[in-house]
Amino acid sequence: MTVDTSSRTEPAERPALRSCLQRCRVGAVEVVTLDGRVHLALDPDESLILDDLDGNHSPAELEHLHGPTTRDLLDDLDEVGLLVGSTPHEEPAVEISAAGVEFAGFDRVVACLDRFGGAALASPWFLTVAAVALIAGPIAFTASSPSPALSGSVTLAVLVVWELVAIFCHELAHGMVLHRSGRRVGRAGFGMHWGAISFFVDATDALFLPRRTRIIQALAGPAADAAIAGALAIAAAVLAPSPASGLLAQMAVMGWIGALINLSPVLELDGQHVLADVFDTPDLHRRSLDALRGLRSKHRRADLALALYALVALAIGSAAIAAAALLWTTVYLEVIGTAWNEGLVGKAATLVFVGPTIAGITATALHRLRPHPRR
User: Fold this and answer.
1) Nearest one of 335, 283, 323 to 306, comparing CA atoms
2) What phi, psi does 218 have (nearest 5°)?
3) Which of these, 80, 75, 66, 86, lies nearest to 31 by C-alpha position?
4) How far is the C-alpha of 62 from the C-alpha of 56, rounded, in Å?
5) Contact 245, 239 (CB under 8 A)
6) Which of 56, 243, 259, 275 is deepest in the core (most CB within 10 A)?
7) CA-closest candidate to residue 229, choices 251, 244, 262, 199
């Protein structure tokens, strides 16, 4: 990006924000973005500083107005290229972080897929087919009796690969809606989520969409999970009782489990984001839990309503997780037992399928139970 700075002093002397920045409020936090490529979250005090970054104040004057933390914010803004005259932040092609392995350029992948198939995916006929699969899939699943004839180790190997493909389709659905809404899909990557390897996409730019579009964008992932699962269940019913029918049915159950977990309001995933937008309360999760904790000392109607929401969300979320766990154990317990008894290969397949999830859940539980020092 080329910025005309001929009529300005150097940013170090009179810092000013780039004119192309976009800002939006998310609860008590303000998010600023540069062309959807750089996002910075600011607390309320830091947001006040932005209003004075107009090129008329020196860093010393800003520090006098807003306190000693001003220089740290100016350094951050300059580092990521949000100030006039500063160099825009260059994203590394590959980056290893606590979230996992991230890579740039996924927006180009989504744009390419949208160019060759986006219009078809968004067409009324395709959406109608997806809706039919979403509704008819569970009916076909309960009405049929597929009987798998594949070995346990082969089944688990296929399910491990399919789980990654399904998660990729889930994130791609989020990204496609974001791209078709005129916003930019951020970095993508893969990492560990509750012990399982999963893909993820940075959809921070969705914060700048209208509320109704944000709801659609958040629902796109679980809807894709459920629609694909429905199509697999219908295929399993049609092919029953062939060897492939049981495997397709298990793949369908995995999709429904993914949709249930992502829609659970107790987890900070798609379902929680949808409810936050429905109630137009971006920090709904935090506020409701705070209200629940302070129920004994706070008696205002708003606090009681938030506390009631927290209780309902916890109940629904726990029920969804329990249903997912029941489906998981019901469908996979026999397959896991069969694979474990198939020698070394079967035991290896079982550990690859089950081990990371158990280890991840255990590590997460130990981290939450461990006492943390007060700040």
Assistant:
1) 283
2) -70, -35
3) 80
4) 10
5) yes
6) 259
7) 251
Q: What amino acid occupies position 29?
A: V
* Element containing residue 38 per DSSP (H, E): strand 38-42
Residue 273 confidence (pLDDT) = 85
Q: Is 114:180 a contact under the CB 8 Å cutoff?
A: yes
pLDDT in tens, 231-283: 999 998 888 777 788 888 888 988 888 888 888 777 677 888 888 888 777 76
pTM: 0.75
Please tell me the total number of residues recorded for the chain in this structure: 375
User: Which residues touch 271 (CB under 8 Å, ≥6 apart)?
Assistant: 222, 262, 263, 264, 265, 317
Helices (H), 20-123: 44-51, 59-66, 70-79, 106-113, 119-121
**Separation CA 100–CA 244 (nearest Å):** 34
Nearest in space to 266 (alpha carbons), one of 279, 257, 255, 275: 275
Strand partners, 33: 22, 39
Quickly count: other Cβ atoms within 10 Å of residue 337's Cβ.
12
